[in-house]
Amino acid sequence: MRTEHAHTALITGANRGIGKEIARQLAQRGFAVFIGSRDMAKGREAAEELCQAGYEATFIHLDVTDPVSIKNACGVFSQKADHLDVLVNNAGILEDHGENILKLNPELLDRALKSNVSGPIMIIQDFLCFLQQSSTGGRIINVSSGAGALHDMSTYAPAYSISKTALNAVTRQFAGALQEHNIAVNCVDPGWVRTDMGGTGASRPVEKGAETIVWLATEAPHHETGKFWHDKREIAW
Ligand SMILES: NC(=O)c1ccc[n+]([C@@H]2O[C@H](COP(=O)([O-])OP(=O)(O)OC[C@H]3O[C@@H](n4cnc5c(N)ncnc54)[C@H](OP(=O)(O)O)[C@@H]3O)[C@@H](O)[C@H]2O)c1
Fold first, then answer.
1. Does residue 18 have its Cβ closer than 6 Å to ligand 1?
2. To test the ligand 1 pocket, which listed residue (195, 204, 230) has its Cβ within 8 A of the most ligand atoms?
3. Are 189 and 232 in contact (CB under 8 A)?
4. Mutate to test the pocket of ligand 1, among 38, 40, 97, 213 (most ligand atoms within 8 A of CB)
5. Which protein residue's CA is at the shortest distance from atom 7 of ligand 1?
6. What is the rounded CA–CA span in Å between residue 184 and residue 137?
7. Can you give the pLDDT at residue 99?
8. Among 55, 127, 160, 229, which one carries the catalytic annotation?
9. What is the pLDDT of residue 4?
10. Per-residue pLDDT at 2
11. Which residue's alpha carbon is at the smallest distance from atom 34 of ligand 1?
């Protein structure tokens, strides 16, 4: 079935963690959600769960590090919908385990940059034609991290932190470039969230981690663009 009129949202890395919760909350608010997932089985399962709860959800195979996968995902999306209202670049990796910048393995940094920076850039570029068709004005939300904030950066997880600082720069660049296209681009620090990445000791449930992202995708004033957010407030870079 083609989604001609519904509000649509694509969330990357939506098969688990914060991404899955963003998809659930947006589906609950009436969006036709597209579950981007590189894991076929888990992606299908996450979409199926939402469909069984009565929501509109479609699995899209999407590895954010693979340009061919992104192009194929665009093709699949175009068969289902003619516009995209919300794009959430949520997929990300954190592979630093006590690494120190003095001994940082460049391959670890390359992997972080590929997933957390180049991936979102390619996805925005390839899905832009659908975002431009949004009747409400497109919204792009990049899921960043407090670890990427320069104002209090120290030595924590260098590859990850550097990649999230770069993602913040990506947000500023696209916000500037897309202002005249009526597309808002923002980034969010979700806080320390109980997921596979955040661990069981994290302070926040996924519901809270998804809250500000969903707010930016729906209720936040559309003129807010090029900013870094935490708990619905603008924060320092
Ligand atoms: N949890 C926290 O405390 C926290 C704090 C600050 C920021 N964040 C950010 O929030 C976002 C979500 O994190 P999370 O805690 O939900 O992490 P998570 O539980 O580890 O989930 C990460 C998601 O990203 C997907 N992913 C990773 N590489 C991918 C690729 N190449 N292509 C497609 N999907 C890929 C994973 O898919 P697979 O299942 O296939 O691996 C998974 O769905 C990340 O950007 C993270 O940096 C999290």
1. yes
2. 195
3. no
4. 38
5. 145
6. 8
7. 81
8. 160
9. 53
10. 57
11. 13
Rounded Cα distance, 77 and 79, in Å: 5
8 SS3 class:
strand
Burial of 230 (0-12, 13-18, 19+ CB in 10 A): middle
| Type of residue numbered 85 | D
Structure tokens belonging to residue 219: 């209720």
CATH architecture classification, 8-234: 3-Layer(aba) Sandwich (3.40)
Supply 199's token pair.
């661990």
Smallest CA-to-CA distance from 9 within 75, 58, 52 is with: 58
pLDDT given for residue 121 in this prediction? 99
How far apart CA 55 and CA 16 sit, in angstroms, is 17
Nearest residue (CA) to ligand 1, atom 17: 197
The ranges of the chain with pLDDT < 70 are 1-5
